[in-house]
Design brief:
The chain is an all-alpha fold. It is about 65% helix and about 0% strand. The protein has helices at about 1-30, 50-65, 70-75, 80-100, 105-120, 140-160, 165-190, 195-215, 225-245, 250-255, 260-275, 280-295, 310-315, 320-345, 350-365, 390-405; strands at about 125-130, 135. It has a two-stranded antiparallel ribbon. A hairpin with a 3-residue loop joins strand 1 and strand 2 (about 135). Helix 2 packs parallel to helix 9 (about 225-245), helix 7 (about 165-190) packs parallel to helix 9 and helix 7 (about 165-190) packs parallel to helix 14 (about 320-345). The longest helix has 28 residues, at about 1-30.
Length: about 450
């Protein structure tokens, strides 16, 4: 565990320290696209944050290769090299897209090629644990197609949810944390060495996200771009493939009595990881809804719009920070709920706890519908928004701002990078906390 934590810390430190120089490089390179009509943020912000994340990945693998115990992962398995090869390819495609806005079909082809590179080096699904049946071996073509499909689905799910400051990196970090605990339990509790690569991938992924988050939290100073979102999606998919299709459930049968019993015991997380529906359930749901919505309207599934889940939260009335925290909450509930259920599926308390927390999550979604007011004698102990006089003044101020702000249907003039005072136009100097219209910056939510 100490070596995993050391790898995590080194990855996070390298990513954090490189993000600042990468931001300056992105500004000089012109990787600051103009504000588009579908964007919510109002200030050009540099991208290419995936550069720092990729070098953090390289640093984590390099450190792990020189540690006493984790070195065995590189000696006994080719999966870390397969991950690095696929990550380098998908990262390069993402960098080109952040700079030149390449076609969506070209990106899709690049994702499939990156997945194929990992398959050629041994990172593929060999069998599937099926409840009630046991271990089902796959042919080479079946394993390849399933692996490529899993990689493409995961990459695009993470890419679709990358719409608000700190949203994608935070959600993937939560998923990676739950995944790390699950993989470490398989490796340490059952002594199955085949789960060690997936545990290493999860630790490195957590470090990449934790190192980038301080720069990406609202208001973001840099976006990860496709170079970052596709990269962390591929690393997450690689871990799922490694532990789902490489760990033989028959090894667990030594402790549980039979192969069927072992498969049945691990199904609560195995099958969701395979599709994947548990560790990235919220991004996967957003991906499916986006495809259905765009296809229903006669648009391309790759056409960008403002109908994602995080956009809906903003339309309901949630602030940027609250919308991000709500998405964090649901991701953690699903990921850690499935993790707890895999540990003890017979416990009714786990089910009741998930149901109770789900009810809390639904109540949080409805918060903008209610405006509670406290008694006057208690207003001094509460935040300003719950004070009657202060709330009335804020409502009047917002009404005045809305009156002076153009309607949503009116076309917005793109703001070019390099304009004085915009976010990212210069690498030094303070940024204004208020926009020209007088609105607080928390309303200028970053949706890419």
């Amino acid at each position: 565990m100490r070596e995993y934590l050391l790898t995590l810390c080194v990855t996070a430190a390298v990513t954090y320290l490189l993000t600042g120089p990468v931001r300056k490089f992105a500004i000089v390179a012109g990787a600051m696209p103009e504000i588009r009509a579908r964007d919510v943020h109002r200030e050009p912000t540099p991208r290419l944050g995936g550069i720092a994340m990729f070098f953090g990945l390289c640093a984590g693998l390099l450190v792990a290769d020189h540690l006493t115990n984790l070195n065995e992962v590189f000696a006994k398995s080719n999966e870390p090299r397969a991950l690095l090869s696929g990550a380098a390819l998908i990262w390069l495609i993402g960098v080109l897209d952040d700079k030149f806005e390449i076609d969506a079909l070209i990106k899709l082809g690049g994702q499939m090629i990156a997945a194929g590179v990992m398959v050629m080096q041994g990172l593929t699904i060999l069998w599937l644990p099926v409840p009630g049946v046991g271990n089902v071996a796959l042919t080479q073509w079946q394993g390849t197609l399933l692996t490529v499909a899993l990689v493409v689905i995961t990459i695009n799910a993470v890419n679709f949810v990358d719409g608000l400051d700190g949203l994608a990196s935070g959600m993937v970090c939560i998923a990676a944390c739950a995944f790390f605990l699950y993989a470490y339990r398989i490796w340490y509790s059952y002594g199955i060495e085949a789960a060690a690569p997936a545990t290493l991938f999860a630790a490195i992924l957590m470090g990449m996200c934790l190192g980038f988050l301080p720069h990406n939290m609202h208001p973001a100073r840099i976006f990860m771009g496709d170079s970052g979102s596709m990269l962390i999606g591929l690393v997450l998919a690689a871990g799922a493939i490694s532990i789902t299709g490489q760990v033989d459930p028959d090894a667990l049968a030594l402790f549980t009595g039979s192969e069927k019993a072992a498969v049945h015991q691990t199904v609560p997380v195995y099958i969701p990881l395979l599709l994947p529906l548990t560790i990235i359930a919220v991004p996967a749901a957003d991906l499916v809804l986006a495809i259905v919505r765009r296809t229903w309207r006669g648009q391309s599934p790759f056409a960008a719009d403002r109908g994602h889940l995080h956009h809906r939260l903003l339309e309901i009335g949630h602030s940027h920070s609250r919308a991000v925290l709500i998405m964090y909450f649901w991701s953690a509930l699903i990921a850690f709920g499935a993790l707890a259920y895999s540990v003890n599926s017979a416990s009714m308390w786990i089910v009741l706890g998930v149901v109770f927390l789900s009810a809390i999550g639904l109540a949080l979604l409805l918060l903008p519908r209610f405006t509670p007011r406290a008694p006057r004698w208690a207003e001094g102990f509460l935040p300003p928004r719950y004070r009657r006089r202060r709330a009335a003044a804020l409502a009047a101020a917002e009404a005045a701002c809305d009156a002076s702000t153009p309607a949503e249907d009116e076309p917005r003039t793109p703001v070019a990078a390099g304009v004085t005072g915009v976010n990212g136009a210069t690498a030094i100097g303070p940024r204004s906390r208020f926009l020209a219209g007088g609105k607080p910056e928390h309303r200028a939510d970053a949706a890419r």
